[in-house]
């Protein structure tokens, strides 16, 4: 399925060298999903900037062997590969490339074809090998000259080797990206595991007894399921391996007798032991902020703290349901209890608030919420302005000292309405924080919202199936309508992920001439499709575009339309949305605790400053608290979207990959981040996970 775009930027980067694309796994030969998407993008962008692009089949082995293993890639050679798993150009281990003689052969094969730019997609071993190859390059050319295999002119002409490495590994074990335990730790957050064992943080002595106490405690509260995640390579403080078999035996013994069915169903119903492949356990590990944040969040959520009643905090969902809302509520409740607060759940948003649908929610009440779709609290779009007096009354009745609102644009408007009423109702002079959760991703102050990733996954999977349905048929165009209101995020990013030819959105006005241009372009390439945002244009509706393409494409292609509808909201949240919701809600609750302590005076909480009502959003990979009043100028209230949206810069890529003639702005360059390699602190190494 394909989509397109219309962008004109100032700068165009261009070069006329040869580019070489390879997959290589020196350590692990497993291939990964979505590698083909990277291959497709590299090939088409390379051709777009004027490079001659080559495939090398079977990884470094193909580079060493040369011959037919190194072939020129064309635009069409990467068509229809987005939805394919694995890698179409192959991947293999290569012992020859580990040897100097093998790298010498590889250098010779590259020089013969004039290749001096490499794009290597692989894991730690692959990229380490690529770097070694770069370091040896000048010496390898000198040897080739000495052996008479190349002349001095070729040595000078191809004297520089440039390499771009893209990390592709399920272990996620490359130092500058994440830690070796990424899968185990982040999976523990995503599924709400009871216990996790990872090599970077060996548990203290006696971990077996503490784990059993934790499992027994959860069983005593009525839980019938325990999840323990063991990373392969997990060790104790003395370097002794902790395997899944050891953990199974320990847990079987400690839970014996607690369930009549335990013996026969232990492994398949009551206990999951998940083993993740992280083979290399080194003494030196690089400490990254993401790992530390994940670990702190897991510890807050996994281990129940003694309950106390410092302050009363209410949590509610507002707006349309978004996958990941329940993970956020679970995180907020448990972190709040850990911080010593009494947590209250409000059903059905602000409507339930003024009706008094409020009750205390405890630690065990949110067990198993992480993977649940929709909103278990209930959520509605009702705004609070017409019922401020009743909401203030409920705040007073339940002595609510702080509010956490999880939702979309309605939640943003609701916080602003509560803030405006502070002058009339002192009950509203409490810390308030909003966490963005909407599939539309249209909340100002945040680059990303909970639920948007799950919606994109649904769009991409559906588009893949639609494409596959057209296999073997005549040329066909699909018109696909996404959700999002006036925000074109889902149409644009979903179109990019699905390989669209056009994406019509409100943010970029289009007219009949643009539509005609697209029709003419599509007659030159098939099979294809178009994506349209829900409110992209009030006149050029999905039906209009469908009829236009059907009429103009007669004799060349036929047309179909699909309205994806509410399937984009439903279903279980993606792992990303589970983790994002968990971490952002935990941070929001910690902010609330801080503000409560700051605003507690003379036996009561009183907070009426601008920074006491904030939105917690993601800005360039960082979670940032922003007073909602400061976000007014950034907001288009008529169309319910931010005035500036980061993803608009991605739209030219869609057009380039669909073979339109356009330009691409690269002026917004990234920044290098230094990573320090050090040993874990003794105190950290002794901490129980």
TrEMBL record:
Any one GO BP annotation for this protein: fructose 6-phosphate metabolic process
Pfam families the UniProt entry points to: PFK
Needed cofactors, names only, are: Mg(2+)
The keyword Signal appears for this protein = yes
Listed under catalytic activity are:
beta-D-fructose 6-phosphate + ATP = beta-D-fructose 1,6-bisphosphate + ADP + H(+)
Looking up InterPro entries in the UniProt record yields: ATP_PFK (IPR022953), Phosphofructokinase_CS (IPR015912), Phosphofructokinase_dom (IPR000023), PKF_sf (IPR035966)
- Top-rank lineage group of the source organism: Eukaryota
Kinase listed as a keyword: yes
UniProt keyword list: Cytoplasm, Glycolysis, Kinase, Magnesium, Metal-binding, Signal, Transferase
Output the PROSITE patterns linked to this UniProt entry: PHOSPHOFRUCTOKINASE
Query: Molecular function (GO) terms listed?
Result: 6-phosphofructokinase activity; AMP binding; ATP binding; fructose-6-phosphate binding; identical protein binding; metal ion binding; monosaccharide binding
Phosphofructokinase domain location: 33-178, 182-249, 312-592
The leader peptide range reads: 1-24
One GO cellular component term: membrane
User: Entry's SUPFAM superfamilies?
Assistant: Phosphofructokinase
- Pathway(s) where this gene product acts: Carbohydrate degradation; glycolysis; D-glyceraldehyde 3-phosphate and glycerone phosphate from D-glucose: step 3/4
Quote the protein name from its UniProt record.
Answer: Phosphofructokinase, platelet a
Q: What is the lineage of its organism?
A: Eukaryota, Metazoa, Chordata, Craniata, Vertebrata
């Amino acid at each position: 399925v394909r989509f397109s775009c219309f962008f004109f930027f100032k700068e165009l980067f261009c070069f006329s060298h040869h580019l070489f694309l390879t997959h290589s796994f020196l350590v692990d030969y497993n291939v990964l999903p979505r590698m083909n998407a990277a291959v497709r993008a590299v090939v088409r962008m390379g051709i777009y900037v004027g490079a001659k692009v080559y495939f090398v089949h079977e990884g470094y082995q193909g580079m060493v062997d040369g011959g037919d293993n190194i072939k020129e890639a064309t635009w069409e050679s990467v068509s229809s590969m987005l939805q394919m798993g694995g890698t179409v150009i192959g991947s293999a281990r290569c012992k020859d490339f580990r040897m100097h003689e093998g790298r010498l052969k590889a250098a010779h094969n590259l020089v013969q074809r004039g290749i001096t730019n490499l794009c290597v997609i692989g894991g730690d071993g692959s990229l380490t090998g690529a770097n070694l190859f770069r370091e040896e390059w000048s010496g390898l050319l000198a040897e080739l000259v000495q052996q008479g295999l190349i002349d001095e002119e070729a040595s000078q002409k191809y004297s520089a080797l440039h390499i771009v490495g893209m990390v592709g590994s399920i272990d996620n074990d490359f130092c500058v990206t994440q830690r070796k335990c990424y899968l185990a730790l982040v999976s523990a957050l995503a599924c709400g595991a009871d216990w996790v064992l990872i090599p970077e943080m060996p548990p203290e002595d006696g971990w077996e007894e503490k784990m059993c106490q934790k499992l027994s405690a959860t069983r005593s509260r009525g839980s019938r399921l325990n999840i323990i995640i063991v990373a392969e390579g997990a060790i104790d403080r003395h370097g002794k391996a902790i395997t899944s078999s050891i953990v199974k035996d320990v847990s079987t013994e400690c839970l014996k007798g607690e369930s009549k069915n335990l013996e026969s169903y232990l492994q398949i119903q009551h206990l999951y032991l998940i083993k993740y492949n992280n083979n290399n356990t080194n003494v030196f590990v690089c400490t990254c902020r993401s790992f530390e944040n994940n670990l702190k969040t897991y510890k807050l959520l996994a281990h129940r703290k003694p309950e106390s009643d410092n302050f009363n905090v209410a949590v509610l969902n507002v707006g349309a349901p978004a996958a990941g809302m329940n993970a956020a509520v679970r995180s907020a409740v448990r972190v709040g209890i850990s911080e010593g607060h009494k947590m209250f759940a409000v059903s059905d948003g602000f409507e339930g608030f003024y009706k008094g649908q409020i009750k205390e929610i405890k630690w065990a009440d949110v067990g198993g919420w992480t993977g649940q779709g929709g909103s278990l609290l209930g959520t509605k779009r009702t705004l609070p302005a017409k019922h401020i007096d009743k909401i203030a009354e409920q705040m007073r009745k339940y002595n609510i000292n702080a509010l956490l609102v999880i939702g979309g644009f309605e939640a943003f408007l609701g916080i602003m309405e509560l803030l405006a009423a502070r002058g009339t109702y002192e009950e509203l002079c409490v810390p308030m924080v909003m966490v963005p959760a909407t599939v539309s991703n249209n909340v100002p102050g945040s680059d990303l919202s909970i639920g948007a990733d799950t919606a994109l996954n649904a769009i991409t999977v559906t588009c893949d199936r639609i494409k596959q349905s057209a296999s073997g048929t005549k040329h066909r165009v699909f018109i696909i309508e996404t959700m999002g209101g006036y925000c074109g995020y889902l149409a644009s990013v979903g179109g990019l992920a699905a390989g669209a030819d056009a994406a019509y959105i409100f943010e970029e006005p289009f007219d009949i001439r643009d539509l005609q241009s697209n029709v003419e372009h599509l007659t030159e390439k098939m099979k294809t499709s178009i994506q349209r945002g829900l409110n992209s244009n009030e006149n050029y509706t999905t039906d209009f575009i469908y009829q236009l393409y059907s009429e103009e494409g007669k004799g060349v292609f036929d047309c179909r339309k699909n309205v994806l509808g509410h399937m984009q909201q439903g279903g279980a949240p993606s792992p990303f949305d589970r983790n994002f919701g968990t971490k952002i809600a935990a941070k929001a609750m910690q902010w609330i605790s801080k503000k409560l302590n700051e605003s507690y005076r003379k036996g009561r909480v009183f907070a009426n400053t601008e920074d006491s009502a904030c939105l917690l959003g993601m800005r360039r990979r960082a979670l940032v608290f922003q007073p909602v009043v400061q976000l007014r100028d950034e907001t288009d209230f008529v169309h319910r979207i931010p005035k500036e949206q980061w993803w608009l810069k991605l739209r030219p890529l869609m057009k380039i990959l669909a073979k339109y003639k356009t330009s691409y702005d690269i002026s917004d360059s990234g920044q290098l981040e230094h990573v320090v390699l050090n040993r874990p602190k003794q105190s950290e190494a002794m901490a129980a996970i």
